[in-house]
Give the backbone structure.
Amino acid sequence: MKRLGKSLNEEETDIDITPMLDVVFIMLIFFIVTASFVKESGIGLYNPPKNDEPPPLDAPKPIVVKVTDLNEIMVQNRKVDFRAIKPTITRLKAESPESSVMVKISPKAKTKTVIQAVDGVRDANVLLPSITLDET
């Protein structure tokens, strides 16, 4: 006797999902292994140790580049455009070659402005400027 639409010799077919699960597990292992090697890069901030001794009177004053919380860039307390950082620092370093360059960053400053300021200082051939947070 025939059942509706099936013959007697026809067996029920099952879908074998084992190969699909193997592929999914291999992909999972691949993504876990590759994701563990991703490392975020950033700008290292260095807060020098507090020193109560004043610097010697004949010590050169540092060139201060300040990024304010209003995203303004100030060089020696004068507001400058980010494109003018390189020539300004170059001129100041020519006047006082012993002076170090210090970049003070407000905690509320935008990252874009900070990067523009640090890049401008590095473009002026200052390879290792001191980068600190401005606590004032």
DSSP finds three helices and five strands in the chain.
